[in-house]
Design goal:
Elements (H helix, E strand, L loop, with lengths): L6 H13 L14 H8 L5 H10 L15 H11 L5 H5 L1
Helix pairs in contact: 1-2
């Protein structure tokens, strides 16, 4: 709903902009500011895509690693190897 261009979504974003803080400093709420919602309003992405990029940055970046929960142990070990963690062999044992 937040990322849609329909009138209801636009009204919801406007209402959020009115009540959210100007910045995130000291923000103990939802972690959104007026500028966050303005950024979403100016984006052509859906809410979850926008939020993912906001949290994780450029998914095409060589430094981005997304593992699957179904293979958590293997994915975690693979990530540790990519980060050159010396203890990987001991953890595998």
């Amino acid at each position: 709903m937040l990322g849609s261009d329909d009138e209801r979504s636009q009204n919801y974003r406007k209402a959020l902009i009115e009540i959210l803080p100007e910045n995130l400093e000291g923000n103990k709420g939802v972690g959104l500011s007026k500028n966050c919602i303005r950024s979403l309003s100016n984006s052509d992405e859906g809410y979850y895509s926008w939020q993912f990029k906001r949290m994780h940055g450029d998914i095409d970046s060589a430094s981005t690693f997304i593992g699957r929960f179904e293979n958590l142990e293997d994915e975690f070990l693979s990530l540790m190897e990519k980060c050159a963690v010396a203890e990987v062999d001991q953890i595998k044992a």
